[in-house]
Write a structure and sequence with these properties.
43% of the residues lie in helices and 13% in strands. It has 14 helices and nine strands. It has helices spanning 41-58, 79-87, 107-120, 137-144, 149-154, 156-168, 187-190, 210-219, 234-244, 268-286, 296-301, 306-316, 324-338, 352-365; strands spanning 27-31, 62-65, 94-101, 125-130, 203-207, 223-225, 256-264, 319-322, 342-346. The protein has an eight-stranded parallel beta barrel, surrounded by eight helices. The radius of gyration is 20 Å and the shape is globular.
């Protein structure tokens, strides 16, 4: 535990990761639970368990799952359910959401879900929050039971404050929710004979622009930036976060991780094939045709339009891929260029075996510990 300039204690446990081997910063995993053509969601979830176990054994700091909806190739619509499953198969690695889309849910429900996860895996649960819907507008309206979608983003700071109050069980007297408690949670310590866990999931703010960067800085919270799909905004957002950061009871100095799309294979040509298949999946998603992640063979046979090829060139420019040495060089350069405190790697490919091998190769390239 460190101490902030005001003299108050901070609770940084689990936020700041530990660097292993020759990695420039701590390394973590972002899992989209991708489903390839010819595979099932069950297959994808089994792969997630295997990657989580590998990540834990090799010294990756945390394993996050991202909330998405109405996308056949992404089986992560329920992060809390997936995290409970992963908690049953791991012992040490931090588990969290990267993220839960706060406007899609009542703050009390999220506090209850992550209080339950914290009870399952004490001291190793993160609660990362985003304000985007994680889907298209029609699906967001179905999730939120309203077509006033801008309201969710505009109300995000208020929703965040409410969620924090539920997690800490400290609504002031007279507040309409003062007698409502998120369980499991701190209220259990105030019951006769009650003993409360000393842990509370740390809040992270996620973003792909300056909004959450500024809010995270102002509140003194850790910040996660989606470099993997908003690379042009990475450095401006990180600069804004650091400039606006105010020490808090959570952190005494800024801490920012970035999501990075990276795929290592034993053969450079295979990396290009897998990355092209993932890029075709993005083309279909961006043009309103979401589906399962295609095979490399399907991508090779696909007749890309000129506009689609331009998109793929731009998209793949931010995907670090190749042999383990090439990926290591790319990650080193990115860490140096952005000054990120942690790199969270997402490896998108049709095959679960390829994804698993990628994390193993990256761990080997940096000399991460072996179980």
């Amino acid at each position: 535990m460190t101490v902030d300039p005001t003299g108050e204690g901070t609770r940084e446990d689990g936020i700041r990761g530990e660097r292993h081997g020759t990695a420039p910063v701590p390394l973590s995993v972002l899992d989209l639970v991708t489903v390839g053509a010819g595979r099932t969601a069950t297959d994808a979830l089994r792969t997630s368990v295997e990657i989580a176990k590998l990540a834990e054994a090799r010294g990756y700091h945390r394993y996050w799952v991202a909330e998405h909806h109405s996308m056949p190739g992404v089986a992560s619509s329920s992060p809390a359910v997936i995290l409970a499953h992963l908690a049953a198969h791991t012992d040490r690695i931090r588990l969290g959401s990267g993220g839960v889309m706060l406007p899609n849910h009542a703050p009390l429900v999220i506090a209850e879900q992550f209080g339950t996860l914290e009870a399952m895996a004490p001291g190793r649960v993160d609660l990362g929050l985003g304000r985007a819907p994680g889907t298209d507008g029609a699906t967001a309206a179905a999730l939120r039971r309203t077509d006033r979608l801008n309201e969710g983003a505009d109300d995000f700071p208020q929703q965040l404050a409410e969620l924090t109050r539920f997690l800490d069980d400290d609504f002031p007297d007279g507040h309409p929710y003062a007698r409502i408690h998120a369980v499991p949670g701190p209220v259990q310590a105030t019951s006769p004979g009650g003993v409360q866990s000393p842990h509370r999931p740390p809040l992270w703010l996620l973003g792909s622009s300056g909004f959450s960067a500024r809010l995270a800085g102002t509140l003194g919270l850790p910040f996660a930036f989606a470099h993997h799909f908003s690379a042009q905004n990475t450095i401006p957002a990180l600069d804004l976060y650091r400039e606006t950061f105010r020490p808090s009871a959570v952190l005494d100095a800024p801490y920012a991780l970035i999501g990075v799309s990276a795929l290592a294979t034993d053969d450079e040509k295979e990396a290009r094939r897998q990355v092209m298949a993932a890029a075709l999946n993005m083309v279909r998603l961006r043009t309103g045709r979401p589906g399962l992640v295609p095979t490399p063979e399907e991508a090779e046979a696909y007749a890309f339009s000129e506009m689609e090829r331009d998109f793929i060139t731009s998209w793949n420019a931010n995907v670090i891929h190749g042999t383990a040495d090439e990926v290591r060089t790319g990650l080193d350069d990115l860490a140096k260029r952005t000054g990120a405190d942690e790199l969270m790697i997402t490896g998108n490919a049709h095959s679960g075996d390829i994804r698993l091998r990628s994390y193993e190769l990256i761990a080997d390239a940096y000399g991460l510990p072996k179980a």
